[in-house]
């Protein structure tokens, strides 16, 4: 395979996972995408790690949309900057369903070997999500 073919295949792998699993909730493809010894942020979790992550998000959010803003590949790595929108319809990080919409971006860096993701490093601002779904802080007027 040429370097160009690897780059194209790896970009398609990222597009496939984000569309089918993150946006669509279909975790049946995890074994196709992730190696049995897949590492997430330094911990070996195998394909079950991404399955759990997707299921947890889909239990707390609905109407999930994922836009891939940038995909950069070098033959071994795929870097994806994405923006997610979703409606908060279940408990997330202790915050009960609010019905609020969120919009948050993240970055994922995958290392790919033999057509499967072996390592994932990512940046996602969970605190920003919690801030968007939490009720506004109550204010009290102080009379003098």
Which features characterize this protein?
6 strands, 144 residues, six-stranded mixed sheet, alpha+beta, Nuclear Transport Factor 2, Chain: A
Walkthrough of the structure:
With 144 residues, this protein is an alpha+beta fold. The protein has a single domain (3-133), classed as Roll (Nuclear Transport Factor 2, Chain: A). It is built from 4 helices and 6 strands. The protein has helices spanning 3-23, 30-33, 48-60, 126-133, and strands at 34-40, 43-44, 61-73, 77-88, 101-113, 116-124. The protein has a 6-stranded mixed β-sheet with strand order 2-1-6-5-4-3.
CA-CA gap between termini = 76 Å
What is the CATH C level class, in words? Answer: Alpha Beta
What level of helicity do the residues show?
25-40%
> How much β-strand is present in the residues?
35-45%
Major β-sheet profile: 6 strands, mixed
CATH-assigned fold name: Nuclear Transport Factor 2, Chain: A
CATH architecture: Roll
Gross geometry:
elongated
Number of strand segments? 6
Can you give the mean pLDDT? Answer: 92
- Computed over alpha carbons, the radius of gyration is 18 Å
Count of alpha and pi helical runs? 4
Low-confidence stretches: none
* Adjacency order of strands in the biggest sheet: 2-1-6-5-4-3
| Structural domains: how many | 1
Q: What structural class do you assign from the helix and strand content?
A: alpha+beta
Order of helices and strands: HHEEHEEEEH
């Amino acid at each position: 395979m040429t370097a160009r073919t690897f780059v194209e295949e790896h970009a398609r792998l990222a597009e496939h996972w984000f569309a089918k699993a993150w946006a669509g909730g279909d975790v049946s493809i995890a074994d196709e995408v992730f190696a049995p010894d897949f590492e997430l942020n330094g911990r070996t979790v195998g394909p079950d790690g991404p399955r759990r992550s997707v299921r947890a998000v889909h239990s707390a959010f609905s109407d999930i949309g994922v836009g891939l803003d940038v995909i950069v590949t070098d033959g071994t790595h795929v870097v994806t900057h994405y923006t997610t929108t979703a409606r908060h319809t279940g408990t997330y990080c202790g915050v009960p369903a609010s019905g609020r919409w969120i919009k948050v971006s993240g970055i994922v860096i995958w290392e790919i070997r033999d057509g499967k993701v072996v390592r994932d490093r990512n940046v996602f601002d969970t605190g920003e999500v919690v801030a968007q779904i939490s009720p506004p802080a109550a204010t009290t007027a102080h009379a003098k």
